[in-house]
């Protein structure tokens, strides 16, 4: 897979000041949906913008035009401690990738897709369910 690469050391610096103990954002926005794999998504008509929460040092981004499927990996995110797959919270075609990732939400989105099935967003957690999910995950560790 050909991929664009993004070095985002400023993201790690920013996130270290605003994350919970396991590295997931302590600021959960109400107008977003969240996946168990800690990706967030904002739906706007037939487009979706999404990103990943956690200590990001390096991100492997997909090429424009690539199809992504809900729950499947499309790239990787590297933190100080580990490298993890980034899973797509919804299915669609990549229409834009973010080469400058400096915050977990406003400027920190990873990519934008044209949705192939907007109803998939209903399978994701709202902010309240995601906050509860993170607290339960943290209690296990």
Query: How much is the radius of gyration in Å?
Result: 14 Å
Task: Estimate nothing, just give the exact number of structural domains.
Answer: 1
Round the mean pLDDT to the nearest integer and report it: 79
Largest sheet: 6 strands, antiparallel
Backbone structural class: alpha+beta
How many DSSP H or I helices?
2
Q: In which range does the helix fraction lie?
A: 10-25%
Q: How large is the share of residues in beta strands?
A: 25-35%
The gross shape turns out to be globular
Kindly report the name of the CATH homologous superfamily.
RNA polymerase II/Efflux pump adaptor protein, barrel-sandwich hybrid domain
Oligomer: single chain
CATH topology, by name, is: OB fold (Dihydrolipoamide Acetyltransferase, E2P)
Family: Belongs to the GcvH family.
Subcellular location: Mitochondrion
Organism: Brassica campestris
Protein name: Lipoyl-binding domain-containing protein
Structural account:
With 141 residues, the chain is α+β, with helices and mostly antiparallel strands. It has one domain (33-139): Beta Barrel (OB fold (Dihydrolipoamide Acetyltransferase, E2P)), CATH 2.40.50.100. The protein contains two helices and ten strands; from the N terminus they run βαβββββββββα. It has helices at residues 9-16, 127-140; strands at 4-7, 33-34, 39-44, 47-52, 58-61, 67-68, 73-78, 83-87, 92-97, 111-115. The protein has a six-stranded antiparallel beta sheet with strand order 2-3-4-10-9-6, with no helix packed on it. A hairpin with a 2-residue loop joins strand 3 and strand 4. It is globular. The protein starts with a strand and ends with a helix. Mean pLDDT is 79; it is low at 1-23.
